[in-house]
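Late entry, evening session. Most of the bench is empty. Finally got around to the prediction I had been postponing all week. Sequence below, unchanged from the version circulated by S.P.
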Amino acid sequence: MTSLISLYSVVKAISVPYGRRSSGRLIKGPPNPVTVGEFYIQATDFWDAVKASFPQVAEVFNSRPEDETVAKYRHENGGHFLFRPFCLVVFAKTVRVLMSRGFSIADSLKVLAGIQMDIGKDPWCHVVWNPNKRTMINKNEPLIRNLLLSLTGQPLSPNDFDLNVEYKKTVGEAQTSFRP
């Protein structure tokens, strides 16, 4: 489903308070057993909440590799947002933003679960997915994070981020019905 580096990035995103420049606790090693325990609990809470909020992820967790369940959610037309490593990491960083605002991991996931997650459709098409080349667009992280926040009714981060301008700049002349 995803790479080890992406999984590390997810743990780092949910473990380091949003806006903190240093993630040294995860880079310098070896960490002490208490720190490892804290990271383990947060990572476990995160994945439990992801499975509880996104049935697609739970289905993959409960499947066997030979079932090729991931192919239902990651395919030539894009697929589900969480089944692309870049999107998963930005998603985790957005969860961390919500946590910094007082949301629990579980509540953050419940809020985000209401968003349309098919990357072949608006608002993600031309932002994270190139429908012409059928490839990922692995950039636009601030735009993606702020789309996620906006779609949940949350303030943008940073507050002066101009979602309309950045969205229009990114999608260009592409036909899109989405209006941030």
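Two things to note before I forget:
The radius of gyration is 17 Å.
DSSP finds nine helices and four strands in the chain.
Will write this up properly tomorrow.
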